[in-house]
Design goal:
It comes from Rhodothermus marinus. This protein is mostly beta strands. Helices cover about 5% and strands about 45% of the residues.
Length: about 450
């Protein structure tokens, strides 16, 4: 009986302890901040913007500040308002909401303010897309190959533009073979490596791919064909030149390739392959499957640093009903391993776009389409590595084009050349975009 009474007393004590714990539990939740306006994913041109913010919590919001300056509360709309002051270039702003108990939450706003002037550039001799544009050491621009229509045959012609001249003119000599969708890499000795490509403005089968490279001597006006392995034949790929210990390497990422050795079916490459550049040949160092990254073709690969060791890689494929977007940063240290760094997805699918590195850490993506040529973009995107995000530049309307070429001139000027319009016809019109330095 005594044991039974002790047990009841123990249970009663436990119940009292549990009852003592039955008090309201308040979680330390922080306020939630929602930016209603403006849209900071867009490039802005004005220096002053009206900011509207909604801050919510299960407790009363005591105040919202922008860079420690209080915002005004609009009780009719239940929003906080204030003026945002932007300087040229990238702006980083701190937005803080505090509730009545002093619990706060802080968001970072990234805002990009730019100003650009658009005017006509020197036209090509004829409409042409899927060519390459290379800036030569003497300041001239060289446009190589391409096709007059997206479904038409590739060209052997070269065109050059000298700054100050009204238009592109024929460059002496012809390519040994017609090419479109190739890459052009300028070597320090003045030779130009034209790797891969297609016999058509748009390859229909793997038999259209060029299983070679042409090394064009700009001084002599003629090229030499360097055969490469058929499995390494690519089109609409990207390349990067690396130098290490007096050796030169050409890295090739993605592109259309032969799906199987015994078939003409086209596939999309998912790897990074490497050639070593010799005076009279290109030697493939990855005879099998290269370094696997992601399926890519018609993508962009733009350097993010002066030493060209970091690149922004972005593109999309429309192989299914829903386009597949690939975006990442690629580190190609000549003396180190290959490394992938995070990057946000493209704001929208873009295939067959072109890109220009404006300054270290800033890339402009031009044109391209979403799924089909009739959905070709007329506004560019800006990627800023410091913020690691994209910005739409809708207030800079450009010619609708894909498979175009572009390069950076001096003083933040960009020349956009050629490409195909939404109807698949080659474009001769060029555009010069001049950005205010930032």
């Amino acid at each position: 009986m005594a044991t039974y009474v002790k047990t009841l007393r123990g249970l009663a004590a436990a119940i009292l302890v549990l009852m003592g714990c039955e008090r309201p539990f308040v979680p330390a939740r922080v306020p939630e901040i929602e930016i209603l306006a403006p849209d900071f994913s867009e490039v802005h041109t004005d220096s002053l913007l009206m900011l509207e913010v909604r801050a919510t919590s299960f407790r009363r919001i005591a105040g919202v500040t922008l860079e420690n300056q209080p915002l005004h509360y609009d009780s009719l709309r239940a929003v906080w308002k204030g003026i945002v002051k932007l300087h040229w270039g990238l702006n980083r702003l701190r937005l803080t909401a505090v509730d009545e108990q002093g619990v706060s939450a802080t968001d970072t706003i990234w805002a990009l303010r730019l100003q650009a002037t658009l005017y006509p550039g020197p036209p090509l001799v004829g409409g042409r897309g899927a060519g390459t544009l290379t800036r030569l050491p003497d300041g001239r621009l060289l446009f190589v190959g391409g096709a007059s229509t997206w479904n038409g045959p590739a060209s052997r012609q070269l065109y050059a533009w000298t700054p100050g001249n009204p238009a592109f003119t024929r460059f002496p000599g012809l390519l040994a073979e017609p090419r479109a969708g190739h890459t052009a890499t300028l070597l320090s000795d003045g030779r130009l490596i034209l790797l891969g490509g297609s016999l058509q403005g748009r390859p229909e089968t793997a038999d259209d791919l060029r299983p070679n490279a042409e090394v064009f001597d700009l001084h002599a006006g003629r090229g030499r064909i360097f055969p490469i392995a058929p499995t390494a034949a690519r089109a609409w790929h990207t390349t990067a030149l690396r130098h290490h210990a007096d050796r030169w390497f050409l890295e090739v990422l993605g592109g259309y390739r032969r799906l199987r050795r015994d078939a003409a079916e086209l596939g999309v490459a998912s790897d990074l392959i490497t050639f070593e550049v010799y005076p009279d040949s290109l030697r493939l160092l990855t005879p099998g499957i290269g370094y696997y990254l992601a399926p890519l073709a018609g993508h962009i690969m733009a350097p993010l640093d002066p030493d060209t060791t970091r690149f922004l890689v972005a593109g999309s494929l429309s192989r299914t009903e829903h386009p597949e977007i690939q975006t990442f940063r690629l580190r190609l240290d000549p003396a180190g391993p290959i490394d992938l760094l995070s990057a946000p997805p493209l704001p929208e699918p873009r295939q067959f776009a072109t890109a220009v590195s404006i300054k270290p850490g800033v890339v402009m993506i031009l044109g391209g389409f979403n799924g089909q040529p009739t959905q070709t973009y007329t506004y560019p995107l800006l990627y800023v590595e410091t913020a690691n995000r994209f910005f739409r530049y809708r207030t800079l309307p450009l010619e609708a084009r894909f498979n175009a070429s572009a390069t950076l001139l001096e003083n933040f000027r960009i020349l956009i050349t050629g490409g195909f319009g939404p109807d698949g016809q080659g474009l001769s019109v060029t555009e010069m975009v001049e950005l205010m330095p930032f």
